[in-house]
Amino acid sequence: MTIHIFNGFTCDARPPSKLKTGEVCTLVETEQGLVLIDTGPGLEDYARPHWMMRLFQVVTRVKMDPQEAAVNRVRQLGFKPEDVRHIVLTHMHFDHCGGLPDFPWAKVHVHR
Fold first, then answer.
1. Do 103 and 87 contact (CB within 8 A), yes or no?
2. 73-107: per-residue pLDDT in tens?
């Protein structure tokens, strides 16, 4: 089993703070295919930012780089997005589940 950890969303604190933050996504290679833990924001969130993304832009410095979207990170790791068979969500905040539309074929697992 191989585990890949990547930043799925940069939202650094505004000066004078030097705090650098992001949203950690984890991609696990399993015998049943790839398992993605949290998606970060999706491509649509970058193309047409919703009110929460715009609020994050006011409160923090958001990089707004769609290359950070999990679907693109999966490609950067050398996989096809369709290889992601399962998505496990830690919780339902947009910065953890916004990328679900980028993986419509994947089975989603989330605590009710």
1. yes
2. 999 999 999 999 999 999 999 999 999 999 999 99
Note whether 102 and 42 are within 8 A (CB): yes
Determine how many CB atoms are found less than 10 A away from the CB of residue 69: 25
**What is the rounded CA–CA span in Å between residue 69 and residue 44?**
10
CB distance 44 to 101 below 8 Å? yes
| Each residue's pLDDT tens digit, 40-80 | 999 999 999 999 999 989 989 999 999 999 999 999 999 99
Q: Give 42's contacts (C-beta < 8 A, 6+ positions apart).
A: 69, 70, 71, 98, 99, 100, 101, 102
14: Cβ contacts below 8 Å, ≥ 6 apart: 59, 60, 61
| 104: three-class secondary structure by DSSP | coil
**What is the token pair recorded at 63?**
């990089």
